[in-house]
Write a structure and sequence with these properties.
heterodimer; A: mainly alpha; Recoverin, domain 1; 2 domains; two-stranded antiparallel sheet; 10 helices; 2% strand; B: mainly alpha; 34 helices; 73% helix; extended; membrane (chain B)
Chain lengths: 179, 944
């Protein structure tokens, strides 16, 4: 971490410093599992429970989904490369489109490539800690779909989502994590 | 020596008086009656001083022949005395020690004469001596009576009598102290005895006025010394503990009391501060003038020090005691206090305090001019600030225009800040997201329900009718009460009951308490969105308050006109008296050089000074407003919350959820309270400049107090909404209030005549004459000319016209921009729908459309081919057209009809894209290949 701001894009990941810092974080998560020496790319993965405990993710209501959507197997086990991927997408320099894709993945709870009503309900409940009544949740989800659904199939495809999120003023400022 | 002393008789008598007074002040500083005594005396000081000065001047010349060098010294000392009593005493003290050693060195008193007489003797002698002084003073008074008016003499006699009375009192006290001190003393060492006797001898030196005053100081000083010694040696004394303790206490008290006056010890600084404060507050900073002193007949009720320091606080505390028992009784007490508040009336808080000297100080500060300009400037600046804030808010409001599309989606997907890593922040964020969702839900529900529009309309009209009725009723009630109070005002106030005296205030605060909840209840009929309902509520309460305020103002103006009448008579009387005085003086002394009459500032006859009266009314209003607000919070919120919280354990039903519940935070009431408070300040600041400072204090305290109340005792509004969105509405109210409070002030500035003897504008016809005077006298002539030209109607009329035109132009421009804005928004909306349509088409949800699109070349997907295919259709036109000389509009129309009839199968092509590349035809006109088949199918398209 440190006080130096991390700026790196997807393509420039091999910036030595950043990678090294990320590696030290990764190593800290599970010193017994992750070797210090990474020169020959050992095949090791960290389980979701460990990663979710990072202070950067700890308070995030979508922490499980974030980790899951970046893991290849979908179960939340992250290799070091996937770990790096995650923070690169969530960094400030990542392009809007990339962020939109991953945001879509994060909010797609049931991984059917559409944001359907139950996904929205889950999102909403996590955002409000289930403070809203079921009727209110229903209303909000309906309104959301009504607003963003362009093709009238009562669920949001990626295109709908992208169209909506590309106009949101705060998306870029809220969808990023500094490490 | 004797001659000199007798010549200085008056002076010394006065000095003696001063000393006694100062001692009195100090000795009674803690006792309540002493406080009023001291205030009584204070104004007299000035009278005495003035007289003393004049006499000094006269006696000096006579004295010159027999002057001894020491006398000069002495005189200076006395001159200084009034200015810095403590210091002087300090000096005396130091010299006194020398005197003790070589008592005869200065040859002033006969201190060395050993006198073993008792203290009682001393008292008698003092009294005798003082009688002598009084007699001589009277003689002197006769001598100088020519230059003093009758009235003044009477007053002076009165003062003299009062002072001598006080002296006696003081003497008695001293005696007592001495006697008490002596009890212990007699049993003590001889040395002390000696000292006391020496002091007594010095003070009792008969027929020697000079040494009397000196002696008194000396006596006092020695008494203090004695007491100190007593305190120090008390342990060694073979007395009973009880006696010791009582003696010790007495001695300590005595030392504490008198040490300060003698300019020594820790009491000194406090004492000096007190003297300074009295002087400052009594109006010494730039000359002592009548307006700054309390008039003689009000001195009894005038003031105590504490009032100055805690103007409101003390009253508040005082009234709190009573108000806890009976709330209304407290209000009565408050009004009484404010009515009788003697001192503050003449303090720097109010208009009347300020001088009408054109310039003051080294820097030639023009007080009257700056007073006027400041008042006007405050209004201008406030207007500017309010308008600027409103404009800024308007800009912010414009930004949110395109939010309408994705309210919920954006809230859902972008409201969480992924940077949050702190649990507390996260909790706050959850809460704020929930609130914002709820707000949107409420908005949405409002949008959705319009089931029975007719019933709703009826209810709204009905509610407004009810509210209008209650507004009218309250207006009539106030009118009625004010009328009645005017009748009461003519009657003797002693015959009226308390309620009759305070009816107006009572009714006004009652209305303020009852009406808002009533309005709220009625407003539930209307069933508006809370934000809109809040606005209505605010507007209604605003109307109510405004009615109250203006009724109050009209009553005030009545009072002012009455005061102006009495002022006129007083002014005439004063002028007549002055004229009389000048005539007498000049005829008696045969000189035209008449000095102004010497009247003690406290005795000057003065007008009612309506400006100060108005200022006092406003201060009263503010103070009572503060009290009402604070009490309402204390009782309505705190006590209620307290009861609900703790009585809930042993109650039949659930108090928290049931009937009383906790109070909701009343946004409308608080906002309006602030707005009206500000309005009062704007109105009152001209008449009571101190009001601004008071208000700052009030706002500071109330901020913390109210925030505590909100956090501790209130629950949030049941229906969530963001009140901050209606910021501009509040600012609009503020602007209206500012304008309304500006009206009366400017009216009084421009039309009413200022009081003739009070305030910075006294002596002027109108207040703004100060500006004209400055322009005439202090600015170069050409600037005056410029002003004359500028105030010419011929210039002003065109300027106003120009401004109106500018406003019109700017208004039109802004409307045009608005139009453009809405057009653009509409276009964006269209584009979005377009996009939606296209997607739908692509997804082939609409079978008919799909079929139709099959008929034609796939344009939406592949524009380039469309361009290629276009030429033919144009060519068709060409092929048809050549028959005609010119492709006129009429011919075209015919052709189109023909074409359309031919192309009947496809009359309604979906308008999914722009009319098509018009640019194509000119380039392709040269290729003359007719392709009727395709052309027919598309013939209509390009022409649309």
């Amino acid at each position: 971490m440190g006080n130096k701001q991390t700026i790196f894009t997807d393509e420039q990941l091999d910036a030595y410093q950043v990678r090294r810092r990320l590696h030290s974080r990764y190593h800290e998560l599970a010193p017994h599992l992750v070797p210090m020496d990474y020169t020959n790319e050992p095949d090791c993965k960290l389980p979701l429970a460990l990663i979710v405990d990072m202070p950067e993710l700890k308070e995030n209501p979508f922490r499980n989904r974030i980790v899951e959507s970046f893991s290849e197997d979908g179960m939340g086990n992250l290799s070091f490369n996937e770990f790096v991927d995650m923070f690169s997408v969530l960094s400030e320099m990542a392009p809007r489109e990339l962020k939109a894709i991953y945001a879509f993945k994060i909010y797609d709870f049931n991984v059917d490539n559409y944001l359907c009503k139950e996904d929205l309900e889950k999102t909403l409940n996590r955002l409000t800690k289930e403070e809203l009544t079921p009727e209110e949740v229903e209303l909000v989800c309906e309104k959301t779909i009504e607003e963003a659904d362009l093709d009238g199939d009562n669920k949001l495809s990626y295109a709908d989502f992208e169209n909506m999120i590309s106009r949101a003023p705060d998306f870029l400022s809220t969808f990023h994590i500094r490490i | 020596m004797q001659l000199y002393l007798s010549l200085n008789a008056f002076k010394d008598a006065h000095i003696c008086v001063f000393i006694c007074i100062y001692i009195l002040i100090v000795s009674h500083e803690c006792k309540p009656y002493g406080i009023t005594l001291s205030t009584k005396i204070q104004p007299m000081l000035f009278a005495e001083e003035a007289r003393r000065r004049s006499r000094n001047r006269r006696s000096k010349s006579q004295r010159k022949a027999k002057q001894v060098s020491e006398d000069e010294d002495e005189e200076e000392d006395e001159e200084e005395e009034e200015d810095e009593p403590p210091r002087r005493r300090g000096r005396r003290k130091t010299t006194k020690t020398d005197e003790d050693e070589t008592p005869q060195r200065r040859g002033r008193g006969k201190r060395t004469k050993p006198q073993d007489s008792d203290e009682d003797d001393e008292g008698d002698k003092q009294r005798a001596a003082r009688k002598g002084s009084k007699a001589s003073k009277k003689k002197a008074a006769k001598e100088t009576s020519d230059e003093e008016s009758e009235e003044e003499r009477v007053s002076r006699k009165k003062a003299g009598r009062a002072v001598s009375k006080k002296e006696k009192e003081e003497q008695n006290k001293e005696q007592k102290g001495n006697v008490k001190g002596k009890d212990g003393e007699n049993k003590d060492k001889k040395k002390k005895k000696k000292m006391s006797s020496s002091s007594s001898s010095s003070s009792s030196s008969d027929s020697d006025e000079e040494s009397l005053s000196e002696g008194e100081i000396a006596a006092l000083k020695e008494q203090v010394e004695e007491k100190k010694k007593l305190i120090a040696t008390l342990r060694n004394k073979p007395w009973r503990m009880k006696k010791r303790l009582s003696l010790l206490k007495e001695a300590q008290d005595f030392v504490e009391k008198f040490e300060g006056a003698l300019g020594k010890g820790k009491g000194r600084r406090l004492y000096a501060f007190k003297v300074m404060m009295t002087k400052v507050l009594m109006g010494l900073p730039y000359g002592s003038i009548p307006r700054k002193t309390v008039p003689r007949d009000e001195e009894d009720t005038a003031m105590d020090f504490s009032v100055l320091f805690d103007f409101g606080v003390m009253i508040f505390a005082l009234s709190l005691n009573t108000e806890f028992l009976t709330c209304s009784c407290g209000i009565a007490r408050v009004t009484e206090i404010t009515e009788e508040r003697g001192y503050c009336k003449y303090s720097i808080l109010f208009y009347g305090y300020y001088n009408n000297d054109r310039t003051i100080g080294v820097l030639q500060y023009r007080l009257p001019l700056s007073y006027l300009l400041t008042s006007v400037g405050v209004f201008g600046y406030s207007l500017l600030v309010v308008i600027r804030t409103m404009a800024r808010n308007a800009n912010e409001g414009g930004d949110g225009g395109d939010e309408g599309e994705f309210i919920f989606s954006w809230k859902m997907f972008t409201s969480w800040d992924y940077l949050i890593g702190n649990p507390e922040t996260a909790d706050n964020k959850y809460a704020s997201i929930t609130t914002s969702f709820k707000e949107s839900i409420v908005d949405e529900q409002e949008n959705q329900k319009d089931e029975n529009i007719h019933l709703r309309r009826f209810l709204r009209v009905f509610a407004n009718f009810l509210i209008l009725c209650s507004l009218g009723g309250s207006g009539y009630l106030i009118y009625f009460v004010v009328k009645r109070s005017q009748e009461f005002a003519k009657m003797d106030p002693k015959t009226l009951t308390w309620f009759e005296n305070n009816e107006v205030e009572f009714v006004m605060s009652l209305l303020g308490l009852v009406c808002p909840p009533l309005f709220e209840t009625i407003a539930e009929l209307e069933d508006y969105h809370p934000r809109i309902a809040l606005k209505w509520q605010l507007g209604r309460i605003f109307a109510l308050f405004l009615g109250n305020l203006y009724t109050f103002l009209f009553a005030l103006f009545d009072e002012v006109t009455a005061k102006l009448e009495t002022e006129k008579s007083i002014k005439n009387a004063t002028e007549w008296a002055l004229h009389q005085y000048y005539a007498n003086y000049s005829s008696f002394y045969n000189t035209t050089d008449v000095p102004p009459p010497k009247v003690a500032p406290a005795d000057v006859i003065r007008g009612p000074c309506w400006e100060t009266g108005v200022g006092r009314e406003f201060v009263k209003l503010i103070v009572s407003d503060v009290q009402v607000t604070y009490l309402t919070i204390l009782v309505g919120d705190f006590a209620r919350a307290f009861i609900v919280r703790f009585l809930n354990y042993c109650w039949c039903w659930d108090l928290e959820a049931g009937f009383p519940s906790y109070g909701e935070f009343d946004i409308s009431g608080n906002v309006l309270g602030l707005v009206f408070n500000q309005g009062m300040i704007w109105m009152g600041a001209f008449y009571a400049p101190g009001l601004v400072g008071m208000n700052v204090l009030r706002l500071l305290t109330s901020m913390y107090y109210q925030s505590w109340a909100v956090m501790a005792c209130n629950v949030p509004h049941e229906r969530v909404f963001k009140a901050s969105r209606s910021n501009n509405f509040y600012m609009g109210l503020l602007l209206l209030v500012l304008f309304l409070s500006l009206l009366p002030v400017v009216y009084s500035m421009m039309t009413l005549a200022p009081s003739f003897d009070c305030g910075p504008f006294s002596g002027q016809e109108k207040m703004y004459d100060v500006v004209i005077e400055t322009i005439d006298q202090d600015l170069p002539a050409f600037i005056g000319n410029i002003f004359i030209y500028a105030s010419n109607p011929g210039l002003i009329m065109p300027a106003i016209l120009l401004m109106i035109l500018a406003i019109y132009y700017l208004n039109t421009v802004s409307k045009a921009y608005q139009q453009a804005n809405t057009d653009l928004k509409k276009k964006m909306q269209m584009a979005r729908e377009d996009e939606k349509n296209r997607r739908n088409n692509k997804d082939s949800t609409n079978q008919v459309m799909k079929d139709l699109e099959d008929l034609m070349p796939d344009k939406s997907l592949a524009p380039p081919p469309a361009e290629e295919e276009k030429p033919p259709e144009v060519v068709i036109d060409k092929s048809v057209k050549p028959t005609k000389t010119k492709p006129g509009t009429a011919g075209k129309g015919v052709n189109v009809q023909k074409e359309v009839s031919l192309a009947a199968p496809n009359p309604r092509r979906p308008v999914t894209h722009a009319p098509g590349p018009r640019g194509g035809p000119p380039g392709n006109t040269r290729s003359p290949q007719p392709q009727p088949g395709k052309g027919r199918g598309q013939g209509a398209a390009p022409r649309r």
